[in-house]
């Protein structure tokens, strides 16, 4: 059995705040003798001296200070838990998991996150990124409650799926790359001579897909779009990058746009969640993100 209770921590906290046991009794609306008894009983159970007593005034010992510092954290945590439980009972989920394609900038949701925080609804957010089919798979396998995905939309039932935007792509190379100085538009077969930087599909069980690679082309496969961008900036290879991610690079000259005879077509941006069984947080996010994002 635990010797330390939340009620005991509240007593210690009240004594420290008021400087006396009688003051703690007033603060907690209790009889002073019950405060004195509670402290004595706790010190006996812990075999520790928590207060130095000087008449009616009491001060915490080193052990008492340590207990109170950690104890106040526990009191705040319990209060937060009670608050979340109350709000969850009103229909808000304890946690909402949002997964987005790493093709999208990580700053995309900042304004929405600030608006959601203002609700003070008690729902914790878990926001992660996946690549290509991996985003859809996260929704299908229950690892996501809401997704923002790029590319082909699967024909699944039981989901709310809506196209909210399109993602445009630009073929980019480093300014010192040979393709930056080649006559344009560049024919497709000329790309075989250059290493492509490709992002690996993060799907675990669904069939993974490959985009923008030529048969037999030398490649470096990376984990996400930011690695691809950095590798291309370093001149290690070539490939298409989302326009929204490289606008500043093109302006600064750290990447150069190359026109191809066969450019990559824009791809749809999808918002998706489960149908029917969502809580208030998922519904709020679905409505909030149901707009052009780029």
Automatic annotation (TrEMBL):
Swiss-Prot/TrEMBL keywords: DNA-binding, Transcription, Transcription regulation
A Pfam family per the record: LysR_substrate
Annotated protein name in UniProt: LysR family transcriptional regulator
Domain HTH lysR-type: 4-61
Segments traversing the membrane: none
Keyword DNA-binding appears in the UniProt entry: yes
InterPro entries listed in its UniProt record: LysR_HTH_N (IPR000847), LysR_subst-bd (IPR005119), WH-like_DNA-bd_sf (IPR036388), WH_DNA-bd_sf (IPR036390)
Protein family membership: Belongs to the LysR transcriptional regulatory family.
């Amino acid at each position: 059995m635990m010797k330390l209770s939340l009620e005991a921590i509240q007593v210690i906290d009240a004594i420290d705040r008021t400087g006396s046991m009688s003051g703690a009794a007033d603060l907690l609306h209790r009889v002073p003798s019950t405060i004195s008894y509670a402290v004595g009983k706790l010190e006996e159970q812990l075999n520790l001296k928590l207060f130095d007593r000087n008449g009616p005034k009491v001060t915490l010992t080193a052990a008492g200070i340590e207990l109170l510092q950690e104890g106040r954290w526990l009191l705040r945590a319990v209060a937060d838990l009670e608050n979340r439980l109350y709000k969850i009972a009103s229909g808000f989920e304890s946690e909402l998991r949002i997964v987005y394609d790493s093709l999208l900038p990580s700053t995309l949701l900042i304004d929405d996150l600030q608006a959601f925080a203002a609700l003070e609804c008690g729902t914790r957010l878990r926001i992660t990124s996946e690549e290509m089919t991996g985003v859809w798979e996260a929704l299908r396998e229950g690892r996501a409650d809401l997704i923002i995905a790029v590319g082909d939309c699967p024909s699944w039932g039981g989901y709310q799926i809506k196209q909210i935007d399109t993602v445009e792509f630009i073929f980019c190379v480093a300014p010192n790359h040979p393709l930056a100085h080649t006559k344009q538009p560049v024919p497709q077969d000329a790309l075989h001579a250059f290493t492509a930087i490709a992002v690996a599909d993060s799907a675990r069980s669904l069939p993974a897909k490959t985009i923008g690679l030529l048969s037999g082309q030398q490649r470096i496969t990376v984990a996400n779009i930011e690695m691809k961008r950095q590798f291309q900036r370093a001149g290690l290879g070539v490939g298409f990058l989302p326009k929204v991610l490289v606008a500043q690079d093109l302006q600064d000259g750290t990447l150069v746009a190359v026109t191809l005879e066969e450019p990559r077509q824009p791809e749809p941006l999808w918002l998706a969640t489960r149908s029917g069984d969502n809580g208030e947080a998922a519904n709020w996010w679905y409505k909030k993100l149901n707009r052009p994002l780029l």
